[in-house]
Amino acid sequence: MFLPTIPTPEEALDKGFNRAKKAANKARTSKIPHQLKSKRIEEIRVRTACQVIQETFKSILEKTPQVEQMPLFYQDYIDVVVGVDQLKKSLGALNWVVGILAKLEGQYAQKIRRGSPESAAKIRREAYGRISSVVNRIRDELEFLDYAKARLRNMPTVDFEAVTAVIAGFPNVGKSTLLRQITTAEPKVADYPFTTTGIQIGHLERKWQKYQIIDTPGLLDRPIDDMNTIELNAMVALEHLAEVVLYIFDASETSGYPLENQFILYESIKKIFEVPIICIFNKMDLVENINYLNEYIHKVDEPILVTASEGSGISQVIDKLEEFKDVEKRNR
Length: 332
Ligand SMILES: Nc1nc2c(ncn2[C@@H]2O[C@H](COP(=O)(O)OP(=O)(O)O)[C@@H](O)[C@H]2O)c(=O)[nH]1
Ligand SMILES: [Mg+2]
Fold this sequence. Notes:
By secondary structure, this protein is α/β, with parallel strands linked by helices. It is built from eleven helices and seven strands.
């Protein structure tokens, strides 16, 4: 998400006051009768300062995309990465300052006009004091927006035309290896600060249909009961996207997770996502006891046996994915 540059209170104020000074210098050289000049000049300074600072914040508000109008995945993504409420609250504070500055401008311009030429400079200084204190009051919000800008600089580019698959399975079962294998055609695998380790999106195109495959290291790789709130939210975000889940079993158990446990995680992922699951049994090259494995292979529909590290069985996975290209898109 693109967020415009966020100034510190000092930067916003300096810009406003400097521009006010320039405008005043220009007025000084104009042909206003002397007795009116000081009032005129101070009014110009107050008005310019208020307007320039208002403009600074208004332009940030205008350039910031409306979160509510984004696809649900992005809304959830932003919520997980920075917090939507906090973001809205901070933008609301900018809006508040814009309103206050408009009021101060009118109020102090009138005060200067009605006052004596001698009091004009004093009133202007009072106005500057008010302006400074108002802008300083949103210091935390500006700081937060600057942080949000950095955190949201790289948002995963989700392709809403593509068929979206999400990879799940215990650690070290071969998820990353499989992702790399499936998406070799276009190995655009990027990291984002979505989970502690980021998410990876691999892309692939087959017969004019695009597919994107999302790997979420550290997220869909252990019992749901162990997840914290952030992780659960991240999972909700994924639910908006996933049209199909690729669940990877380590058929060899060399990763250290018994098939029994892998099967329990499979069942819970199946419940949560409510989309078709493609079951992939990986590391077939290391399988020693085929009878034991068969028990689990028979428990799932249409298992695909692969050795991801060697690329064997990968084309079957892609063929299977292709069956989902006509699946009606979920509301996301
Ligand atoms: N022998 C063998 N090793 C594999 C296979 N697939 C992945 N690996 C290895 O298993 C380890 C974990 O793989 P990785 O893709 O990082 O698993 P992830 O944690 O699920 O992403 C790596 O050392 C891989 O090289 C396979 O089919 N056979
Ligand atoms: Mg991995």
